[in-house]
Design goal:
Length: 341
C-alpha cells in the first residue's frame, strides 16, 4: 500500500522567522503528527521528533531533506542545533534519541516532563503502577485491566532515555521563542510563541478536543489544569496563527479555545445526566460503557481516562459524592461508586 503524507508547509511570522511544518506517520495506520523546523529565530531548531515507530523516523529525515528541494534552502539535517520537545507523549518525543544521533542537537523540555526523557524506564514502571491503581478504582475487571496494561506498554518498548540539556520554562526565552506552560493534556506541555505564531502542541487542536486523563494518575494532568491553561492561553494577545501537533493550522485560536471549553462542558453535562438517570451509584467503568459503548482496544483505555477526568473534575467541584464509603474504608482499593452530591 502506498502511503500518502500531507504536504510540507511553510509559514512566516511577522518578525521574519521561517517555520516549516513536517508531517510524520507517528503510529502505523496513518496517524499523523507534525514536527516543525524553525529558522531565522536563532539557532536552527526542530520542535518535536515524532514517535520513532514505524515510518516516523524516515518521514522526519525525508521531510527535513526535502526542504532543500521544495523551498530552495541550503539546509541539511546536521544544521539543526536545538531539539525542543513540547510534551512527554510518545508521538512527540519517541524519536528524540534518533534525532539527537542524526543532528547532534541539544534537547530542551519542560521540567515536569524532564524525567520522561532522562529516566524513561523508571517513568514507564511508575506510570504503569499508577494506571493499574486507577483502573481498579474505576471498576475495570481484572481480565480487561490486564489487556489494557499490555496495550499501554506495548508501544513504549522502543524508547531510550536521553540527556536533557536545558529547560523550557516560562521564564526562559530562546532568541524570539517564548514558552507558555499549559498543563492538563500532559504535565509539562508547553506552547511555543514565535512572534505572532503559536506552536500549540496538543493543547489546542483544530478539530479534536485533546484527550484528558485524571490527575489521580499523573500530577498536573486533569481537566481543571487543562481548562485553566486554556484561559491562560486565551489571555495571550495578538496570536495570528496557531499550529498544533496534529490536524490543521488555526487562524482563529481564540474562537477554537471557546469551542473546546464548550465541548468539555457538554461532556460534564453528559456525565451528570448519566449519573442522574442511573438506578444506582455507578463506577467510572459503568459511565464509560454507557457514554462510549462502541470503543475497542486502546480506545477503551482512552475512554476510561477521559470519563475519569470529567468525573474527577465534578467530584472536586462538589457535584458528585462517593456512595460506597464503608467499602472504601474496609477494602484496599475497591471501585468508587458515584452519585450526585
Amino acid at each position: 500500500m502506498t502511503r500518502k503524507l500531507p504536504p510540507i508547509e511553510h509559514f512566516e511570522t511577522n518578525g521574519g522567522a521561517q517555520i516549516y511544518r513536517i508531517p510524520v506517520e507517528a503510529f502505523p495506520g496513518g496517524f499523523i503528527a507534525y514536527c516543525y523546523v524553525v529558522l531565522e529565530a536563532g539557532e536552527p531548531t526542530l520542535i518535536d521528533t515524532g514517535s520513532g515507530l514505524g515510518f516516523s523516523n524516515d518521514d522526519l529525515v525525508d521531510g527535513i531533506r526535502a526542504l532543500s528541494d521544495q523551498f530552495g534552502l541550503a539546509f541539511a539535517l546536521t544544521d539543526i542545533r536545538r531539539i525542543l520537545i513540547t510534551h512527554g507523549h510518545i508521538d512527540h518525543f519517541g524519536g528524540v534519541a534518533f534525532a539527537v544521533e542524526q543532528t547532534g542537537g541539544h534537547v530542551g523540555i519542560h521540567p515536569l516532563d524532564r524525567r520522561v526523557l532522562t529516566n524513561y524506564e523508571e517513568r514507564v514502571i511508575v506510570a504503569t503502577k499508577d494506571l493499574r491503581v486507577y483502573l481498579e478504582r474505576a471498576g475495570v475487571t481484572p481480565h480487561l485491566m490486564s489487556n489494557l496494561i499490555d496495550l499501554y506498554g506495548f508501544a513504549k518498548q522502543h524508547v531510550r532515555s536521553v540527556p536533557v540539556d536545558f529547560m523550557l520554562e516560562e521564564t526562559t526565552t530562546l532568541d524570539r521563542m517564548h514558552f507558555i506552560h499549559t498543563p492538563g493534556h500532559c504535565p509539562g506541555q508547553v506552547c511555543i510563541l514565535i512572534d505572532d505564531v503559536l506552536i500549540s502542541a496538543d493543547h489546542v487542536l483544530s478539530r479534536t478536543s485533546p484527550h484528558q486523563a485524571p490527575e489521580s494518575i499523573t500530577n498536573y494532568t486533569g481537566l481543571g489544569h487543562y481548562l485553566s491553561a486554556l484561559d491562560k492561553l486565551a489571555g495571550v494577545p495578538d496570536i495570528r496563527l496557531a499550529m498544533g501537533g496534529h490536524e490543521d493550522p488555526m487562524p482563529n485560536l481564540y474562537a477554537r479555545i471557546e469551542e473546546i471549553k464548550a465541548s468539555h462542558q457538554r461532556k460534564l453535562n453528559r456525565v451528570l445526566d448519566a449519573i442522574r438517570t442511573a438506578e444506582q451509584p455507578v463506577s467510572i467503568s459503568d459511565l464509560s460503557k454507557h457514554i462510549y459503548p462502541e470503543r475497542h482496544g486502546y480506545d477503551i483505555l482512552l475512554a476510561l481516562e477521559e470519563i475519569g477526568a470529567h468525573v474527577e473534575y465534578l467530584y472536586e467541584h462538589g457535584q458528585l459524592a462517593v456512595c460506597n464509603l464503608h467499602q472504601v474504608e474496609q477494602e484496599d482499593n475497591p471501585a468508587l461508586l458515584y452519585g450526585l452530591a
